[in-house]
Write a structure and sequence with these properties.
Length: 43
């Protein structure tokens, strides 16, 4: 897992999303709630 860019808290997986032929993992900070998306695969 990575650290939050805003508060340096622990980022946890919040779900997976498909968009077109890409697959993204949504990460959420357990302290401040900041979210980010990371591409994890292409079809």
């Amino acid at each position: 897992m990575s650290n939050c860019l805003k508060c340096k808290g622990k980022m946890i997986g919040a779900g997976v999303m498909h968009s077109g032929n890409s697959k993204y993992q949504i990460m959420r900070c357990e302290k401040c709630g900041h979210e980010k998306m990371e591409c994890i695969g292409l079809a």
